[in-house]
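Thread amino acids onto this structure.
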């Protein structure tokens, strides 16, 4: 009965050995069994396939035989000393195949123990991680590229999760907000960086986007709050990213600070409105060709030409008093910067051939790399009429003054003559009185 039982145990051991041997031979990782002196005792088929050695070539050899160099061999040796008899551990070293090819390998070391529980060898599971390393290096390069992009891109990049917690912010974003990265990451974007007036509305929209109840807005503009408490207007381009199940788990938004641009646009619109609504005629024309680039409404209406017509015209087309030579001579001081402005009077001819008097204020302005003549035209027709009327009145007044002066001169002459007669009489009376006195003996 005892022999039968022992036989059964032997059979079970044999079956177990065959089973584990089958597993040992079929495992995809290369398996190396060595003693404490690091002599190779056994290897599985995957090992022979990876290193290209036969059993006869490798069994009994030091494991140094399969390392790139002694430094790599010693590297694992130091790890074996540190972890001697401990739980399994991982180490990455460079191995060398029979052909001399070097590859990066990861070894998972398991210790073998005797009946007393003391370590008497080890098993190493070696995995060729060359491809993994290549992928990791590629990912690292891509990550570095992405980080470089984050560092140098001239727009704000912000990523938040479904709760509005900031997961990523790039240096430009920190610059615009005025905070450090550490002060932003982990904070609630809505509560800390959006003006209170539309904070709740944005939260509600975000909640619906993450719940899949509405599409994410691809482009929008809103203000953000900086560390100094002022607001900046940002133009956002928004995108979502999803998990493997298609659930939205975060948003990535790129934002451009358009605060100054908006101010400039408003200023441009204001200037454009002033330009278009001005009652004076305003012309912009090329400094070389004299072709008009822009003409305001007042000029178009007064001349009778449309903007499409004026684009193919120059000031000479309605300045009958000028030739190309005389006009070029006139503007030469502006080109040479001898004068900042020229003011002169001339006549303009409308499309219907009628004429009107104008006073022109001409300047040469530079827009970026382009020189443009700017002419502000004052219609002085009424002023000219008034000047003529004034001249006529002045002439009439002078004539009247002459007439009055003549009349006064004539009256003064008569008065003078009368005075002479009166004085003569008085003199005769005095003379007669003196004679009477003499006769009376007085």
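Threaded sequence (442 positions):
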């Amino acid at each position: 009965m005892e022999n039968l039982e022992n036989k059964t145990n032997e059979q079970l051991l044999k079956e177990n050995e065959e089973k584990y041997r089958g597993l040992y031979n079929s495992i995809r990782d290369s398996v190396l069994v060595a003693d404490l002196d690091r002599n190779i005792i056994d290897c599985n088929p995957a090992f022979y396939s990876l290193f290209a050695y036969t059993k006869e070539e490798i069994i009994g050899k030091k494991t140094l035989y399969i390392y790139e160099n002694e430094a790599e061999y010693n590297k694992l040796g130091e790890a074996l000393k540190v972890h001697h008899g401990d739980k399994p551990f991982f180490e990455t070293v460079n191995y060398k195949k029979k052909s001399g090819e070097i590859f990066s390998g990861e070894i998972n070391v398991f210790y073998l123990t005797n009946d007393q529980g003391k370590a008497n060898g080890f098993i190493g599971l070696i995995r060729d991680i060359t491809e993994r390393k290549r992928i990791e290096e590629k990912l690292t390069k891509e990550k570095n590229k992405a980080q470089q992009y984050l560092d140098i891109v001239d727009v704000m990049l912000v990523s938040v999760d479904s709760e509005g917690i900031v997961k990523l912010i790039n240096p430009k974003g920190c610059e615009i907000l005025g905070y450090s990265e550490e002060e932003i990451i982990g904070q609630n974007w809505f509560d800390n960086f959006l003006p209170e007036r539309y904070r709740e509305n944005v939260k509600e929209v975000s909640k619906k986007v993450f719940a899949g109840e509405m599409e994410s807005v691809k482009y929008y503009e809103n203000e953000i709050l900086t560390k100094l408490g002022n607001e900046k207007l940002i133009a956002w381009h928004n995108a979502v990213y999803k998990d493997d199940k298609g659930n939205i788990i975060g948003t990535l938004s790129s934002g451009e600070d358009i605060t100054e641009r908006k101010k400039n646009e408003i200023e441009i619109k204001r200037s454009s409105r002033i330009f278009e609504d001005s009652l004076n005629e305003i012309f912009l024309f090329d400094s070389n060709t004299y072709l008009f680039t822009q003409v305001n409404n007042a000029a178009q209406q007064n001349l009778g030409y449309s903007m499409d017509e004026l684009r193919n015209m120059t000031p000479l087309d309605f300045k009958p008093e000028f030739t190309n030579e005389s006009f070029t001579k006139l503007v030469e001081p502006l080109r040479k910067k001898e004068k900042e402005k020229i003011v002169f009077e001339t006549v303009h001819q409308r499309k219907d051939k009628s004429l009107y008097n104008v006073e022109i204020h001409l300047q040469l302005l530079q827009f970026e790399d382009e020189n443009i003549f700017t002419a502000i035209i004052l219609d002085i027709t009424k002023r000219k009429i008034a000047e003529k009327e004034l001249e006529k009145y002045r002439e009439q007044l002078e004539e009247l003054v002459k007439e009055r002066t003549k009349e006064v001169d004539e009256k003064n002459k008569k008065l003078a003559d009368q005075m002479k007669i009166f004085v003569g009489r008085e003199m005769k009376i005095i003379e007669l009185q003196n004679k009477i006195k003499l006769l009376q003996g007085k």
